[in-house]
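Hey,

Quick one before I head out. I ran the complex with 3,4-dihydroxyphenylalanine overnight. Inputs first:
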Amino acid sequence: MQDHLQLKNEILQKINSSSDLNDLDDVRIQFLGKKGSLTLLMKQLGSYEPEKRKEIGQKLNEIQKDVLEAIENKKLVLRKNHLNKKLENESIDISLPTRPENQGRIHPLTKTMDEVVSIFAQMGFSVADGPDIESDYYNFTALNIPQEHPARQEHDTFYFNADANGDRKVLRTHTSPVQIRTMEKLKPPLRVIVPGRTYRSDHDATHSPMFHQCEGLVIGDNLNMSHLKGCLIEFCRVFFGVEDLPVRFRPSYFPFTEPSAEVDIGCSKKDGELKIGPGDEWLEILGSGMVNPRVLQNCGIDPNEHQGFAFGMGLERIAMLKYGIPDLRPFFESDLRWMKHYGFFSYEQTSIHQG
Ligand code: DAH
């Protein structure tokens, strides 16, 4: 009996002093495992007289019950301690400053494109596009710029090598070929803009061999010059955010429009700083005109039934004017310092407000 009591106390003490769940399991195995000392005692029961066997058996069962209970209780305590320790070690110091985050910027050109698209979308235009690599036909001929036309020389075209038929593809020199592609595909009335990349062999502070234009084309019935003017005056005023912005239409020449007009906006220069708005100077920002009847005919549209107007503008140019960016070249140099300075945060509201 004395032995049994001693054994029980020894086990309980070991359970009590286990410092973690592994320790505790070792104790369990040591006494209750297959070769555990309590297990062995129970195995020996068979060798006792029935009377003695009953008595010792009962004792051993009680010890086993107490031991199992003690193990379970200790388990709960150890688990709780373990969790508490974890919580303590992993506590969050909410007084720490946040880690600096790298915030990207929206390129001024992307921003400008989004603004232009959104202004024209509000006027009912949809966006069309076409390939950067164009045939001579779409880039020139269909736009009433035949082979011997002087306008071809003015475009500083990048030509591809001639194919087997002697045809040379070009990198489109303007977005105007998409006028032709659109009129071939869709029936009037139509209203599209075409923002996209264009290419000319030219490189200085205000010219890049790759640049962007936005074309516009409206075809309908009974459209005239006043529709063109109304549309473009509205665009200029909303885009530059100047309600009383003076807009001037200056007679010009483009092979694909007749009559043609260049569009200027008012500005002033004070202490070398350019301000867009009423003033005594003008800035040219886009080309426009009534679509030349020959161009309509080239697309199978009867000029006696439908007319329309078109326009085209350089997106870098209007971005530079609106956001005061003096040089075109860094637009495409991916200099992060420039992006930080001129770029926009994505959550910034666009400055489009309808007049
Ligand atoms: N394609 C012309 C250029 O690149 C711009 C232009 C002028 C487009 C008049 C037009 C337009 O649609 O009507 O210089």
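The CA atoms of residues 103 and 194 lie 30 Å apart.

Talk tomorrow,
K.
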